[in-house]
Design brief:
single chain, 12 helices, about 20% strand
């Protein structure tokens, strides 16, 4: 029979067309299948991305990871071993899919003592140990392991497992696994940041409460004392500071009128340091000092007793206190004073129109037991101005880096006193000068407190001769 007959050629052509049609259909089905797989994978990744953007519970998010990566890669299961911020295995957040899979691996991880050590997940040898432990448990499976890393820090380990005869080690699968691991790392990092922020908010609330309590311990207004004006202000560098000033009647049981004409204690002090610890110590000293004032002892004895009372607490805290204590008799205008290494107050004397320092020998409170303190006294005269201040004023840094220093403070005080200003005006001018020196864009590095005492000037009545002239 002729092989090139028309019938044979027709059969051959038909067979060829059938094969071509089948191949074309298979290719079409393959492309459609791949497209469907891509759509499913995209939906899965979009779901994970949405969960990452909107989650408020990290545990719920981590529960999704093994399920999602299993469906994304098309394997039997997945295991997630996250690390805490300190590097320990995060046992409470161990996750696996399917959940009915043998939980023996969880028991092994919970019993792994090394996993409780700080920094465990940050060492390569420990990651290899985890890999071997998981491989031994899933010994009949093929396993891919990848690290969960965020900002260069190990946040956990992600394992994907399936039967050995199934190949899931293609580049696409590995990229999908790594993508899920990276998103998991971002989620854990976000949770760490969120926890830090929440802890800071708690601390801020506690500091705010402490600042409010401390502000209530400082006098909210100056007392009315016969013959003098008082003005005071404290500007803490932080919400809670170590500066302290107070006005205390030595006889609080008297009537307001009697107290206004009686004896008052004026004190200003500074705990070495800033923030909450300094504020707590100053609050403690305030209570001790107020009890001592009731004894009516002279200033040097009060500082001596205060040093004895506070020595143990200050020694344990490794801090010291500077304190200037004075008492003022409104009837005689006598001021007695003692100094525990505090900045000596500046005295403007109206009679000679000059500034001098009030000082007396004495050690820091809390430095040495049985410390002795000197006692000085002075009669204040009409027009005299006394400025108590803390070193936060003179140590304040200017825009060029220099200190405000005592000379600037002295010159500003002298200028204000020469103009005959009130105590409040003098205080305002001193702080305005300090603010200009520090600059608007800068803040004080230390607490700054000032108290201004001004003796009322005598009322000058015209003489009879001049009245009838």
């Amino acid at each position: 029979m002729n092989q090139n007959s028309p019938i044979s050629e027709q059969k051959y052509q038909h067979a060829t067309n059938s094969l071509s049609s089948a191949a074309s259909k298979s290719l079409t089905d393959l492309i459609e299948s791949l497209s469907q797989e891509q759509i499913v994978n995209q939906d899965l990744l979009l779901s994970l991305s949405f969960a990452l953007r909107s989650f408020t519970n990290l545990q719920r998010f981590l529960e999704l990871i093994p399920l999602l990566v299993t469906q994304l890669v098309g394997v039997k299961g997945s295991l997630l071993i996250p690390f805490q911020d300190n590097g320990c295995i995060w046992r409470e957040q161990l996750q696996m899919f399917p959940i009915e899979e043998d939980q023996g691996i969880f028991r092994q991880l919970l019993l792994l003592e090394e996993g409780k050590n700080i920094g465990f997940g940050m060492q390569e040898k420990n990651l290899l140990r985890l890999d071997r432990l998981v491989q031994r448990h899933f010994n009949s499976f093929n396993i891919i392991a990848t690290s969960i890393v965020s900002r260069g820090r190990q946040r956990g380990r992600l394992y994907v497992f399936d039967k050995k005869e199934i190949d899931f080690g293609t580049n696409v699968h590995r990229k999908h696994i790594q993508l899920v691991a990276d998103l998991t790392g971002v989620a854990i990092e976000n949770d760490v940041i969120f926890q830090v922020i929440r802890n800071h908010e708690k601390v801020d609330r506690q500091i705010s409460i402490g600042a409010e309590i401390q502000s209530q311990l400082l006098p909210d207004q100056c007392p009315i004392i016969e013959g003098i004006q008082l003005a005071a202000c404290c500007r803490p560098a932080f919400q809670v500071g170590g500066d302290y000033y107070d006005f205390m009647p030595t006889r609080p049981d008297l009537t307001d009128t009697a107290k206004a004409n009686g004896r008052w204690a004026f004190v200003i002090g500074d705990v070495m340091g800033k923030g909450v610890p300094a504020g707590l110590l100053m609050t403690m000293l305030r209570g001790m000092l107020r009890a001592e004032v009731l004894s009516g002892l002279p200033p040097d004895c009060i500082l001596h007793d205060l040093n004895q009372l506070a020595l143990e607490d200050l020694t344990q805290s490794h801090r010291f206190v500077t304190l200037f204590y004075s008492d003022f008799d409104a009837r005689s205008r006598k001021l007695r004073f003692a100094n525990a290494a505090h900045n000596p107050p500046l005295l403007w004397q109206a009679r000679n129109r000059a500034v001098s320092r009030l000082d007396a020998p004495g050690l820091l409170i809390g430095l040495q037991s049985n410390a002795d303190y000197g006692c000085g006294e002075i009669m204040l005269e009409p027009g005299d101005v006394l400025l108590y201040y803390t070193d936060g004023v003179t140590e304040a840094s200017g825009m060029a880096g220099e200190r405000f220093d005592e000379n600037r403070l002295l010159r500003t005080l002298e200028s204000s006193c020469r103009s005959g200003s009130s105590a409040q005006t003098i205080l305002d001018e001193l702080f305005n000068r300090l603010d200009r020196f520090v600059g608007e864009d800068h803040h004080l590095e230390d607490d700054a407190s000032m108290v201004v005492l001004k003796v009322d000037e005598e009322l000058m009545l015209p003489s009879l001769n001049s009245a009838f002239a």
